[in-house]
Amino acid sequence: MVRVAIAGINGRMGTMVSDIVLAQPDMELVAGFDLSAGKQVGPVKVSSAKDIDSVLKAVKPDVLIDFTAPSAAVGNVKAAAANGVRMVVGTTGFDEAQKKEMADAIAKGNVAAIISPNFSVGVQVFLKLLAEAARDLEGCDIEIIEAHHNKKKDAPSGTALKAAEVISGALKEKPPLVYGREGVALRGKEIGVHAVRGGDIVGDHTVLFACEGERIEIKHQAHSRSAFASGAVKAARWLVSQKPGLYSMSDMVMQ
Ligand SMILES: NC(=O)C1=CN([C@@H]2O[C@H](COP(=O)(O)OP(=O)(O)OC[C@H]3O[C@@H](n4cnc5c(N)ncnc54)[C@H](OP(=O)(O)O)[C@@H]3O)[C@@H](O)[C@H]2O)C=CC1
Ligand SMILES: O=C(O)C1=N[C@H](C(=O)O)C[C@H](O)C1
């Protein structure tokens, strides 16, 4: 049995991840953490986020799945790594210092972890297509447009930033990012990044390659958070048989 703990278990993603974990015959939900404690989820009563260290020590999960907020996730990663617990981190919106803090904690704890801004399998294919298009269409103007629900706190999305990183990695000339546009300014060599927020949009990412006389759009649309949640649960199962280290979702999907 894979013993799973979930941080952010009361949230939109945490709720869906716990439903999927509870339905897996080879998984057991052993702990859940959130700012508001006490709710019963399957066999566990949600623990207060501040008790994560003592609860991890007591229940010894195999994997902690985190969908919370950036500073919360950094604390959770440190607690999990210090207790030898593997991690699946789906939270987005980290700054560079927070990314380094997590990587250092994972290395020091000598545990296996996946940090990914998007756990859908489709998005891994989308990223692969972007790299190919960027290589073949060098010189075309590139714009990334993402759309999400009106409760999303970070912008641009983690996936949009990952798309920019992948595109940049495939181009000979590394362009700067320009977030939105306002006022009088001609487009330069940049990648434009635009965030749309509204209603209950689950997660759309479009990359436009605009060339002379033609254009290509590569688009991924998530219809349900189950695309992310089921990928995160698969990642938890996969991590159990991996050596210690920091992995990405493409390490798992493209194996
Ligand atoms: N990688 C991926 O595939 C995906 C990533 N995401 C990302 O996941 C994150 C969560 O998204 P979503 O579920 O929509 O957000 P929600 O706000 O619905 O859920 C986050 C939950 O975490 C709780 N929380 C805050 N701090 C802590 C803490 N220290 N310990 C435990 N729980 C805590 C929040 O409590 P409270 O509400 O009281 O603040 C809330 O219940 C975001 O960063 C989002 O961008 C989302 C979808 C897919
Ligand atoms: O907050 C969300 O909802 C999502 N966040 C992720 C991101 O920032 O890329 C992934 C997904 O698009 C949904």
Automatic annotation (TrEMBL):
Tell me which UniProt keywords the record has, alphabetically. Amino-acid biosynthesis, Cytoplasm, Diaminopimelate biosynthesis, Lysine biosynthesis, NAD, NADP, Oxidoreductase
Provide the GO MF annotations for this entry: 4-hydroxy-tetrahydrodipicolinate reductase; NAD binding; NADP binding; oxidoreductase activity, acting on CH or CH2 groups, NAD or NADP as acceptor
Pathway(s) the chain acts in:
Amino-acid biosynthesis; L-lysine biosynthesis via DAP pathway; (S)-tetrahydrodipicolinate from L-aspartate: step 4/4
Listed EC numbers: 1.17.1.8
Instruction: State the active site.
Output: 148, 152
Grouped into one coarse class, the protein's main location is cytoplasm
Its localization reads: Cytoplasm
Q: Which residues span the membrane?
A: none
Among Gene3D superfamilies, the record links this protein to: Dihydrodipicolinate Reductase, domain 2, NAD(P)-binding Rossmann-like Domain
Q: Which residues bind NAD(+)?
A: 8-13, 34, 90-92, 116-119
Pfam families hit by this protein = DapB_C, DapB_N
Q: Which PROSITE patterns match?
A: DAPB (PS01298)
Annotated binding of (S)-2,3,4,5-tetrahydrodipicolinate, by residue: 149, 158-159
Under which main EC class is this enzyme filed? oxidoreductase
Question: What GO cellular-component annotations does this UniProt entry give?
Answer: cytoplasm
Q: Which GO terms describe its biological process?
A: diaminopimelate biosynthetic process; lysine biosynthetic process via diaminopimelate
* Domain Dihydrodipicolinate reductase C-terminal: residue ranges: 122-252
Q: Which InterPro entries match?
A: DapB_C, DapB_N, DapB_N_CS, DHDPR_bac, NAD(P)-bd_dom_sf
Q: List residues of the Dihydrodipicolinate reductase N-terminal domain.
A: 2-119
Catalysed reaction(s) here are:
(S)-2,3,4,5-tetrahydrodipicolinate + NADP(+) + H2O = (2S,4S)-4-hydroxy-2,3,4,5-tetrahydrodipicolinate + NADPH + H(+); (S)-2,3,4,5-tetrahydrodipicolinate + NAD(+) + H2O = (2S,4S)-4-hydroxy-2,3,4,5-tetrahydrodipicolinate + NADH + H(+)
Under the subunit heading, UniProt states: Homotetramer.
Q: What does this protein do?
A: Catalyzes the conversion of 4-hydroxy-tetrahydrodipicolinate (HTPA) to tetrahydrodipicolinate.
Q: Which family does it belong to?
A: Belongs to the DapB family.
This chain belongs to the protein called 4-hydroxy-tetrahydrodipicolinate reductase
Species of provenance: Methanocella paludicola (strain DSM 17711 / JCM 13418 / NBRC 101707 / SANAE)
